[in-house]
Amino acid sequence: MKLLTCPRTGAVEAIDVAEPTAGPGEILVRMTLCGVCGTDLMKVYDADTPKPVQLGHEIVGRVSAVGASVARFRVGERVAVAHHAPDYGSHYARRGSPTQDPQFKSSNVAPGGFAEVIRVPADLVPHTVVPIPDHVSDERAVFMEPLGCCLRAMDRVPLREGDTVLIVGVGAIGLLFLPLLRDRSVTVLVADTRAERLDVAAEWGASAGFLVGRDDVAKGTKAATGGRGADLVLLTATNAATIALALDSVRDGGVILPFGVKPGMMPPVDLWQLYRREVSLVTSYSATPEGLARAMAILARPGYALEQTISHRFPISEAGQGFALLHDMKASKVVVTG
Fold first, then answer.
1. What is the C-alpha separation between 186 and 201, in angstroms, rounded?
2. Quick check: helix, strand or coil at residue 301?
3. What 8-state DSSP symbol labels residue 275?
């Protein structure tokens, strides 16, 4: 069968590997779609990430085989699959940090999400495999894992009805936050370097959009909040410029959440400002199994056509084109097809 892998920095290749078999408690999933995540892109283009490296975890497919003792799933069933689950008895999980459990970070599907057939290990099957309702398309279900990541982030910050959130960067991930925030009766402001993204965000309910490089984002944010600034600034792209923008735009006592972060990123942070203004810097890593089920429940509702953010589809053999487009910022959301 075909598998997409990264043998060296900047390259992805489709190779032939043996098709896996299902052991006790495991299932096999024949991949229909797998979304390309920002972490996939980072693994390919970051020179410090050891190669070869496994790719792909936003998985949609059909169960093709079930191992002994698996009763919950049946062959032919459509499912969405993610790649991490914690030991729920661990010190971390019992204290609200399941994504920091060592088992969480070491668990994974095999041989990767960009494969024709994927083996889901027994420790993941009860937690990260979610049935897809009949009325939910594959293109919609592929957003389960990234939407779960957004839910995890929102669970980690204090938000109240009537708050104002500034999203810096409204590509595919930034747009995922919009319906979640609107559901909480939060006013959403957005900033981006591309005007067309601001237009889409406005259609999805953003109250105001600022074009970086043309508009004074901090001034506009404060004007929209009675001079206070945003209660929360979400950074889907984190660098020195966006950190500075966030500090200028967040209210005293507010929160900055860097959501899109890469290894080795060391932007300067004015700790005096954080201290004096009581600004909290909060991070969020991955999605919890509970968040996956919640994400599918949201995707089962009408509205918020997240699937419209998919700009390109490529088979495994041509997926390198999709990675290149994303790297060059010429695509919004790329999915690989089985």
1. 14
2. coil
3. H
Q: What is the mean pLDDT of residues 270-288?
A: 96
CA-to-CA dists, residue 213 to 119, 233, 241, 276, angstroms: 46, 18, 11, 28
Enter the pTM of the model. Answer: 0.95
Number of H helices, E strands in the chain: 12, 15
How far is C-alpha 301 from the chain's CA centre?
19
Is the peptide bond prior to 7 cis by the omega test (within 30 degrees of 0)?
Answer: no
DSSP string, 90-147: STTGGGT-GGGSHHHHH---BS-SSBSEEEE-TTTHHHHEEEPPTTS-HHHHTTHHHH
Span 212-222, average pLDDT: 98
Q: What is the pLDDT of residues 56-76, one digit of tens each?
A: 999 999 999 999 999 999 999
Residue 262 pLDDT exceeds 90: no
Instruction: Please answer whether residues 59 and 31 qualify as being in contact, where contact means their C-beta atoms are separated by less than 8 angstroms.
Output: yes
> How far apart, in Å, are the Cα atoms of 203 and each of 126, 179, 206, 209, 232?
37, 11, 7, 11, 21
* Confidence grade of residue 304 (pLDDT, cut at 50, 70, 90): confident
DSSP annotation string for 219-251: HHHHHTTTTS-EEEEEESS-SHHHHHHHHHHEE
Dist. CA 53–CA 45, nearest whole Å = 11
pLDDT digits (tens, 9 = 90+) for 134-174: 999 999 999 999 999 999 999 999 999 999 999 999 998 99
Q: Residues 323, 303: contact at Cβ < 8 Å?
A: no
